[in-house]
């Protein structure tokens, strides 16, 4: 394995640890999460995985978003099983916007055959989709544990380093890891 692939796999491991910790906290009842929010995240991460894998063309570099896809679905399912979700009635404007942008990303990917443009739209969707999480934490910082969020940030710092090590001269390759770190 090349150094960037080792780093990408290490990023995937960090990602998995963060999800395990988060899921443990959901199971213990320490987190009451947004069921709609995590459901939307689960959809977004699969779109992101598909477009990123098409863009980057490397299985190891795709490991972190693969873990993220599995992790988001796991959080969603565990929250459902343990009824660890906040009451929320219907889709908010943010939810509808994110779903609409996701649909646009799929259309762009299918019609233009551009994984890169679709991925950029998905990154905008992610940024918007995190607004309710930010609002919740801003109002009450104890609602979300900081450890998994710190580890998720570390995941994307390591993945960004891996992208730099395998630099192909395509700035678009950096959009996903840098945006994910910023989120």
Overview of this structure, please?
The chain has 183 residues and is mainly alpha-helical. The chain has eight helices and no strands. Helix 4 (93-112) runs antiparallel to helix 5 (115-129) and helix 5 (115-129) runs parallel beside helix 8 (175-182). The protein is globular, with a radius of gyration of 16 Å. The two termini are 30 Å apart.
**Chain-averaged pLDDT:** 90
Low-confidence stretches: none
The largest pleated sheet is described as: none
The residue fraction in helices comes out at over 70%
Give the end-to-end Cα distance, rounded to a whole number of Å: 30 Å
Helical stretch tally: 8
- Shape annotation: globular
What is the tally of beta strands? 0
Helices and strands in order:
Elements: H1 3-27, H2 35-56, H3 63-81, H4 93-112, H5 115-129, H6 131-139, H7 146-165, H8 175-182
Helix pairs in contact: 1-3, 1-7, 2-3, 2-4, 2-5, 4-5, 5-8, 7-8
Short summary:
This protein is mostly helical.
Features:
single chain, 183 residues, mainly alpha, 8 helices, 0% strand
